[in-house]
Amino acid sequence: MNLIPNPGFEELENGSPKGWATRTWSGDPALATESGSAASGSHCVTVSAETLTEAGHYLEVEVRPHMVYRLRGWIKTENVHGSGRGAMFYLPEVVKNCSPTVKGTHDWQRIEHVFDTGDTRRLRINCLFGGWGQVTGTAWFDDLELVVLHPSLGDHLSLGVSSVVARNLASNADSASLTEWILRLPAVNSDLVGHLVEGFSRGWPPNTAVTVNPDQLARLQGLLDRLSEERQVDLMKLALKAGVSGLVGRTIPPDLGDVSQATVIRLFPVKEQMLFDKTEFTVPAGRRVKIVFKNNDSMPHNIVVGRPGSYERIGTAADRMLTDPRAMDRAYVPALSEVIASSGLVFPGQTEVLDFTAPKEPGKYPYLCTFPGHWRLMKGVMTVAKE
C-alpha cells in the first residue's frame, strides 16, 4: 500500500497539490504544478531556476521506527548543472537520506531508494532540486510511492544472525541435512522464518536437489501462503534451487495508479508451452508503458525489452548466465546496454508490473523471457509508433 497521499499531484487545492508544500533554501526558483508533461496522469511538480538554487516540494508522512521502506518516484531533468547533486528524493530524518540523483538532461526515469527508519516516526519527503550545493535548470517529479518492506536488522539482530547462520549452514551441508532443514521451515514462527529462507536461498549449493512428498509440499505451500510477497519470492527461489516444484504464490492485485496517459498491456504465459499469449503489441513513442504480467504457468518467467535487432544478443548472453551462481538473483537479465527495461523473476501465481517510458525512436523492439531455455520460443515484438 502506498503511504504517500496525493502521490501523483492530481488532487489540487487553490492550484497547488493538496498536502504538499514548498521550501527554498537559496536562489530564486519557480516552484510550480505543471499539466501536460506528467509521467502519468495530468499533473506533476517542477522546480526551475536560471540562477543557482536549492529548493523543492515536500510532504510529511507517519512511518514505523526500525523498519525498512522503499521509496520510488519518477524524475525528469533538463539542463540541470551546478555544484549540487541535481534532482533527487531527500529524507533528512534518516541516515541513508538521499536517493540516486539526476543531472543533465534526461527523460522520465524511475528512481528507487531503500532505507531504514531507525528511531524516526515522522518522515519528510523532499522532491529536491540542488542537494549539498546549488544547481540551475529544470526538474520534474511525479508518481511517488512509499511502501514498507520488513523490520530492520538494527532492532532484530538475532534475526539477521539467523540469516547468516542459515546461509553458512546451507553452503556446507549435505543433501539429507538440507532436506531436513527445509521440512522444518513450516513450523518456524513468522518473524524468524523469512530470514532463514533468505539465508538458505543465498547459501544453497549448486546442483543440490531435495525430494518432498505431497504432504510435505502442502506444508511448504502453507508456509508460502503466510509470507509477505518479498519473502514468497525468497522461498520460491529456494524451491527452484532445490528442485522443488508445485508451489504457487499469491499476489495483491497491482495498483496501476492513473493510467490516462499510459498504455497498459496485459500479458500472460501460455501454460506449459513457453510462449507469451501476445507476440506483438504497439505503444506510442515517448509515452509511459505499463506491462502487467500475470504468471499463471507452473514455472518462473521474466520480461526483457531490448533495442531493435538485439534479440539474439540478449538471448545468447542469457544462455551464458547459466554458469553464473548469482544469475537467479539478477533474474537472468544480462547486463547489456541493449536492455531498455526488464522485470524480476515472476514466479507461478504472481503478478508484476513492468513500468517504463517507451523509446522516442519508432521501431521494432523485441521482448523475451530470459529464464534458462525460454528465450528461443518465448518472445514477441513491441512496435513503437509515432503518435
List keywords for this structure.
8-stranded antiparallel β-sheet, 20 strands, alpha+beta, Immunoglobulin-like, 387 residues, Jelly Rolls, 19% helix
In short:
About 20% of the residues lie in helices and about 35% in strands. It is α+β, with helices and mostly antiparallel strands and about 375 residues long. The protein has 3 domains: about 10-150, Jelly Rolls; about 155-240, no CATH class; about 260-385, Cupredoxins -  blue copper proteins (Immunoglobulin-like, Sandwich).
List the helices and strands and how they pair.
Elements: E1 12-13, E2 16-17, E3 21-26, E4 30-35, E5 43-62, E6 67-82, E7 86-90, E8 104-116, E9 122-130, E10 135-151, H1 157-172, H2 175-184, H3 190-203, H4 214-225, H5 229-241, E11 262-267, E12 269-270, E13 275-276, E14 280-284, E15 288-294, E16 304-306, H6 311-320, E17 339-342, E18 351-357, E19 363-368, E20 379-385
Range of strand content: 35-45%
CATH architecture of the largest domain, please?
A: Sandwich
* Sheet/helix structural class: alpha+beta
CATH class of the largest domain: Mainly Beta
Question: What's the overall geometry?
Answer: globular
State the end-to-end CA separation.
34 Å
Total individual domains: 3
Helix content: 10-25%
Number of helical runs? 6
Q: Could you tell me the number of beta strands?
A: 20
CATH superfamily of the largest domain: Galactose-binding domain-like
Mean pLDDT: 92
Provide a descriptive summary of the structure in words.
The protein has 387 residues and is α+β, with helices and mostly antiparallel strands. The chain folds into three domains: 12-151, Jelly Rolls, CATH 2.60.120.260; 157-241, no CATH class; 262-385, Cupredoxins -  blue copper proteins (Immunoglobulin-like). Helix content is 19%, strand content 37%. It is built from six helices and 20 strands. The strands form five sheets. Strands 3, 4, 5, 6, 7, 8, 9 and 10 form an eight-stranded antiparallel β-sheet that branches. A five-stranded mixed β-sheet has the order 14-20-19-16-17, with helices on one face. It has a three-stranded mixed β-sheet with strand order 11-15-18, with no helix packed on it. Strand 1 (12-13) and strand 2 (16-17) form a beta hairpin. The longest helix is centred in the middle third of the chain and has 16 residues, at 157-172. The protein is globular and about 70 Å long. The protein starts with 11 loop residues before the first strand and ends with a strand. The model has no long low-confidence stretch (mean pLDDT 92).
